[in-house]
Amino acid sequence: MAFSEVFLQELADRNDIVDVVSGYVRLNKKSGSNLFGLCPFHSEKTPSFSVNSDKQIYHCFGCGKGGGVINFVMEIENLSFPEAVEFLAKRAGMPMPEESRDDPAARRREQLLALNKDAARFFYDQFRSPAGRPAQDYAARRELTPATVKKFGLGYAPESWNSLTDAMKAKGYSEGLLLQAGLVRKGKNGGVYDTFRNRLMFPVFNVRGNVIGFSGRILGDGEPKYMNSPETPVFSKSHNLFAMNFAKKSKAGSVILCEGNVDVVSMHQAGFDNAVASLGTSLTPEQARLISRYVNEVIIAYDNDGAGQKATARAIGILEKLDVKTRVLTLNGAKDPDEFIKKFGPDAFRNLLDKSEDQVDYTLRNIRDRYDLTNAEGNLSFLQEAETFVAGFSGRAERELYAMRLADLVGVSADAVKQDVESVRKRLAGKNKRQAEKQELNLTGKSPVRSIRYDNTRSAMAEEGVIRLMYLDPQLFDRITPPAPSEFTVPELGHIYETLWDFSKTGQPSFATLSGVLSNDEISLLTTILQKPEVLSNGQQALSDYIHIIRQERQDAQPEEDLRNLAASLRNRKGYLDSEST
């Protein structure tokens, strides 16, 4: 999609990157013109994500992602370039250029969202019709009120092979679009049939309030109990949470993480409007990062069974990497939050939330419950596992505090447990260092962006230098014979160089204008390249040196390439002669 440079630059000027990023990341630490926070694109405990207010760029020193404000919105909201531009235009109150409305990918996403909205309306109407009696009866058994049904847009998928298909075709939607939305499936005879049949339907909204998919609970016998929409251009279950569109507006300051959709609906009805659920999966890192945009505390309210405890442990591990405070709810006398509220009432559940354990106490209690602490063998086994857990704490004071608690619990010297914890910590640190070194040795080439490979590091570093000088001072290239993009050993670097060369003919490019031409990985790579220092006072000599290295490396590699071609030719000839002799 082509937007004018003037429009894109005005768009970037009216969407300050610090303001935009601050809506997703808590930027606290400041160093010069850089603000730092925890990266929203990978899990980390120490902030390595920087936003430069002067250059209007972001860069993560951990995962390598970077770029301008448009790239940030593309990455964080999972949008295409035109969609990110429209997102920022709406934010700034700017009208979109008329020619931008011809983008096929954006138009297809709009069609899918419109189809999902109409499908949700169809399911909702079916729920309220005489045909929706099975869903009505189920909702009555779960004590869901008409207001709650309306708030969540709950619906019913009839026990029919083609009711939705026919209704959507009547509205003008094609079979191909229905397939792409996951609302129908291909039949053996070449036709299609409805994906959801005889199910209570839960529309899944994204945080912007669009219907992006569905989750359906079966109302009769059969499997699976819950069925979710497949991955589509507008829906990814690992990146979204059921009811997050409501929970993000809650004044509770926390999120209650539940297992099932019905739990969430019931809790909202009882006044707990910060409840959410993952969509048929355990909590994913992407879902955790979505939560961390809005709150810094999560209360895990999974079921009490073995599967629930396993899912809780996994969620704790993911959330603690994001510096999100985590507490765990222990339900006594009920298998899930919905049952607890119905048995004991909302006030009792609210008291239970206040008494929920933090993640450390919960984990240590689970470890303790696995051992018999009435004998020496059980105490030693408990200490060994608990000390390993405590050794992972980053703060020395925190490690000492819990070491003393462990010592009191089993009746041994606090100093002995402290020493054990520090010993385990050193051993784990050494192990992690060896693993990192081993991984480093296995790499044949280094690139700031993991998806881009550097086979010839010396040439790639020189190619980076050429790009850096092209961006900072294109006039340096007026006095030399510039290298061709084909001389670059890394195709992505060649494409970045070629793009900058094209832009240099009309003026200095900006990240706003480059975002529509370079891929996100290429933009991230360019951002990383520009973080490295370059002395422009000696720019002409540096440029000559970089070009010399590129051409020298290319020349040195040529004989090796010729030898490989000769070897291949001989192998082919040998195979031919062997076949002749038989």
Keywords:
582 residues; 24 helices; single chain; 5-stranded mixed sheet; alpha+beta
Give a quick summary of the entry.
The protein is of the alpha+beta class and 582 residues long.
In spatial order, strands of the major sheet run 1-2-3-4-5
Poorly predicted tracts of residues: 439-444, 573-582
**Proportion in helices:** 40-55%
Return the structural class.
alpha+beta
Largest sheet: 5 strands, antiparallel
| Rg result | 29 Å
**Cα distance, first to last residue?**
60 Å
User: What is the general shape?
Assistant: globular
Folded structure, characterized:
With 582 residues, this protein is α+β, with helices and mostly antiparallel strands. Helix 18 (396-410) crosses helix 19 (414-442). It is globular, with a radius of gyration of 29 Å. Helix content is 52%, strand content 10%.
Topology:
Blueprint (H helix, E strand, L loop, with lengths): L4 H9 L3 H6 L6 E3 L2 E4 L11 E4 L4 E4 L5 E2 L1 H9 L3 H12 L11 H25 L4 H9 L4 H7 L2 E3 L5 H8 L4 H6 L3 E3 L5 E3 L4 E7 L5 E8 L7 E3 L15 H4 L7 E4 L2 H9 L5 E3 L7 H8 L4 E4 L5 H15 L4 E4 L8 H8 L1 H9 L2 E2 H11 L6 H15 L5 H15 L3 H29 L14 H16 L18 H14 L6 H4 L5 H12 L7 H43 L1
Parallel strand pairs: 12-13, 12-14, 14-15
Antiparallel strand pairs: 1-2, 2-3, 3-4, 4-5, 6-9, 7-8, 9-10, 10-11, 15-16
Helix pairs in contact: 3-4, 14-15, 17-18, 17-19, 18-19, 20-21, 20-24, 21-23
